[in-house]
Fold this protein.
Amino acid sequence: MWLEGPAGKIAPRELPSQVGIDAMQDDPYRSVLYFLRGIAYERPEPSPPFLEFYLGAWLKSQMAITPADTATQQAYFALLQKAAQLLILASPQTHTLPDSASPTLSQLGQLSEVNHKKLNKLNNPDGKLALLFRS
């Protein structure tokens, strides 16, 4: 099991007793990775367990996400652009955690360039970001 939440390490007793949207916390770094699949990384087959958790931990070590970064569609799009660039520009041999036994970015499907067509599609009026910010 992955014993780390958005605020850091957690003890097994702190895990929610139920799984569901009401019991889970949002991790903004893993949320960014949801949008970047196929844009800055591609899930390898077979896929290592906790792939997005490892990538999220790495991304958190590279950049801070503030509430302003996720407040509007344009701010979130800029955040995705920045995160995509960080991921593709990093060395493929970079470990996702300080532990050298952690997977490297290349093992987790790091792409060599940003898929700008897919990235820009997110920001279209009918794209995933528009759906996220529709009231």
Q: What stands out?
A: Helices lie at 28-36, 51-62, 73-89, 116-122, 128-133. The CA atoms of residues 92 and 105 lie 5 Å apart. Residues 24-133 form one domain.
